[in-house]
Sequence to fold (93 residues):
Amino acid sequence: MRMPLRGATSEELTREAAELANARRTGGEDGAPLDEDIADPLGLSLPAYRATAWELNGLVERLVEGVFGEGADRGGAAAGTEAVEQGSAWEAR
Fold:
């Protein structure tokens, strides 16, 4: 994985990430996911929703690290706390 451009704007970083992702998809470069499907939990159990949320969280983390580099500022939020809080509130109902 390439490191992000130093001093680049978020727009430039996003454009570079999109170009890299396109090159991986169309060029057969190693690192492109073999399975791009994410399970749809609609109508399934709470654990199915959690599994989908966990998978999406991992993909978003990879995206953020790919665009902004490892250790990117996440706006002060601890990783995954919002989803845990929402899940706990939902269970309490």
Summary: The mean pLDDT is 75. The chain has two domains: 7-34, 37-93. Helices lie at 10-27, 46-68, 81-92. The radius of gyration is 16 Å.
